[in-house]
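Quick one, T. Sequence first:
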Amino acid sequence: MFTHKDIQQIEAHGLSVEKVNTQLANFRNGFPFLKIVSSATVGNGIKAVDDQQAEQYRALWRQSLGGLKVEKFVPASGAATRMFKDLFAFVNEDKSGKVVEAVEQGLDRFAFAAALNAVVPEGASLKDKVAAIIGPEGLDYGAKPKGLILFHNYPDGPRTAFEEHLVEGAMYAASEGVVNIHFTVSPEHIEGFESLFESVRDKYEQKFGVKYNISMSVQKSSTDTIAANPDGTPFREDDGRLLFRPAGHGALIENLGERDADVLFVKTIDNVAPDSLKGDTIKYKEILAGLLIATQRRVFDYVQQIEAGTANLGEVAEFVEEGLCVRLPEGVKALEGEALAAELLRVLDRPLRVCGMVRNEGEPGGGPFWAEGADGSVALQIAESSQISPEQKHLMAEATHFNPVDIVCATKNVRGEHYRFADFVDPQTGFISSKSKGGRELLAQELPGLWNGAMARWNTLFVEVPISTFSPVKVVSDLLRREHQ
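Structure tokens:
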């Protein structure tokens, strides 16, 4: 199937022929649906934290900070093209709509209003102003990443989404005076992020009395997937070369796995609030992190007891089911002695994550569910609609909560060794979609999502968090909503 030139191209991409053949087989065979048992709800997989527990977890987190290397991990790749798609349609096709109307009415309320006024002449038409927002002769926001767009106004000047993450990090992730934040960015945007950071570093270090350690990485070409024709054969460009495409945010599990941190906070670049509304965000980040530390300590205690041969295996099994939300198969529960100990150790010795879940006020993008794994155990999973069979789609509509990508991760085992995250990916949770290039149809393949299949074999806990912690910016008019003003 592959020529010598093809193989050279594959290997230059950091891939192997074997891996590419596996990807092509996925196009032919598809991916199986998750075996959903039920949606997770408060009291059934989702933990509701009362005031007393909240203060205990927050105190534990603050007490633990000094002995931990903590880092925020922020996926920030890609341009904000979709955020401004309605503005592009207005300028290029004269199409108006709700977003354009909202922009017209609220133009002076955007944090970038002053910057816009500096590049458009007085009396400019709405179309000229919109063109200046998105075009290269103006702010060029249509080609910039969300992280470099001015989101919020303050008395001392507007802030970008990138800067809001600097502020957040100082508020809940500063360990011994250092704030570590890692951004995954596109290669063409690295210089822009670095330049912005150097221009604001002193301001925020002085404001919060911290030092920032900012790092960046790009999505590896070795995580790209081959594109296919509708019949499943390799898609070739006009010059005969194979086409490889970025495989979605699931590819970032490799970037995440390379971070040398004990605790990682994962949050998307656009989900930030202004200072006046940050209180709940800080509070619940500390709650999630405190629960993570408390749970990890119990896990480590039980691992050490099992390895020393002193564990009460019944007590450990109860913790696995109640404390880690892993329902063991009947066959495992029937085991005794070393056989049971080995199975319990297999469950305990995994990366751990605590995920915030928000009340569903509409159709969820991804939700919390109980799902059956290949080993027969039933555990908590974050599932997208594409992972659920048509016969079970009603479960998405019935879900009480959705996933806002609010995750805190414990990355090391009891010996302080970093887990190899690739070992805990479920490769059968990828996704195939229809795309086109040059007017030709093609099939694209995404790897298991970062917080879906890429973390499918982690131990997972869900905690209810308020909607005030979730304020994403999907379209430009979202910046005019109360939570961004």
